[in-house]
Specification:
single chain; 219 residues; alpha/beta; seven-stranded parallel β-sheet; globular
Length: 219
């Protein structure tokens, strides 16, 4: 059991993950805005401004794992997405993850810890009107690949989780914006995905999943 930092802890997946981690005996610290309403310790950070993190996250002690669940998902064609849309999406979805890793790497190296990035659905590539989100998730994938190579010698594990449709408010909003149906009963339940993430963190010493694709079961 160890100390786990979780971003996006107030979202659907994050809430379920915090509960699952606590139930498994981990100590959890939430990172982000509005964390004061959670029943775990929190660090107030605006993930759209990763340059401000050092003053708070940099003071943390021992950390065994970091799980980046946070993400935003603007719907806008390239022709309509201005610089601020791109800046904020890349900051929240990628740059904040990279900065959290940078700040916690000394602790993660000491503990031979684990970094988990929650990405998009398996195999997602170009999607019309979703360019900033898709680009950010491609960047997050490459961040994970680079980090895994860089930190292999230090014993830090890096896993990317690719969840298919998960029953969250955010997915409902995205489906509505795209004019597509949304039935939570046909989706992965957040608690089920959270259980799989906890399982990844409990992998044995000699092996672990570096990528995990999760799909809704056939109905």
């Amino acid at each position: 059991m160890g100390h786990v930092l979780v971003t996006g802890a107030t979202g659907g997946i994050g809430v379920a993950l915090v509960d699952a981690l606590v139930e498994a005996g981990h100590r959890v610290t939430a990172v982000g805005r509005d964390v004061g309403r959670l029943n775990v310790p929190g660090i107030e950070v605006d993930l759209s401004e990763p340059e401000t993190m050092a003053a708070t996250v940099g003071a943390l002690g021992e950390v065994q794992a970091l799980v980046h669940c946070a993400g935003i998902s603007p719907i806008a064609a390239v022709a309509d997405a201005g610089p601020e849309t791109w800046r904020r999406t890349l900051a929240v979805n990628v740059a904040s993850a990279a900065e959290l890793v940078r700040l916690t790497l000394p602790a993660l190296r000491r503990s031979r810890g684990h970094v988990i990035f929650i990405n998009a659905a398996p195999g997602m590539t170009g999607v019309a009107r979703w360019s900033a989100f898709v680009a950010s998730k491609a960047a997050l994938r490459e961040l994970a690949e680079s980090l895994r190579e860089e930190e292999a010698a230090s014993g830090v594990r890096v896993t990317t989780v690719y969840p298919g449709a998960t029953a969250t408010d955010l997915l409902g909003e995205v489906r509505s914006d795209f004019g597509r149906p949304y039935d939570p009963a046909l989706c992965i339940q957040p608690r089920s995905l959270a259980a799989m993430i906890v399982w990844v963190l409990s992998a044995p010493a000699d092996a672990y999943p570096c990528e995990l694709s999760v799909l809704p079961s056939p109905r």
